[in-house]
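Hi support team,

I submitted a single chain yesterday and got back a structure, but I'm not sure I'm reading the token output correctly. Could someone confirm the output below corresponds to the sequence I sent? I've pasted both exactly as they appear in my results page.

Thanks,
R.
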Amino acid sequence: MVFRFIEKFPLAAFLLLTMFSAIGCQSRTVGHLLGRWEGRPDTAAGRAERDAERYGDTAPPTVSQLSKTDWENYDLVVSLEFVDRERIELALSDGSEPVAGEWSIISTSPIGCTIEVDTAGESPESRVRRQFQLELDERDGVCVGFTMREVGADRQLGALYFRRPSNE
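Hi R., thanks for writing in. Yes, this is the structure output for that exact sequence:
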């Protein structure tokens, strides 16, 4: 019976398969992200070091002399928590400037996903909706970190690299 459906409606079968595949990828990605993370400005040296770890390169990483991104000019740590499949909280690591909102995955790719974060303030005018591209840093099926870059932002802004807090 399934084969007859596929023969008669190949496009519908393809769309159903694609939809179920996307749902599975999103569910897996959500599972990787849930919990607390600490983010710092990503650097060329940090990327080179992670690539060396990821690909088993034993040579010390060499970094070309790239200009610093805007984020690299600040010594900051961002605390981010994907509370559940809908809620997100973030603040500076000292607890200042807290923001809470809702989040959702709006697309997935082989290396990560794009999320949308919707924060609402005291009034409807203070509502902010932003999208971020997350590139997962997976090792042996475990997400050890991810880079987060705002969609549409100038590339010079840079990215934040998030890891689990060292005390967890």
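A quick pointer for reading it: The chain is about 25% helix and 35% strand. Let us know if anything else looks off.

Best,
Support desk
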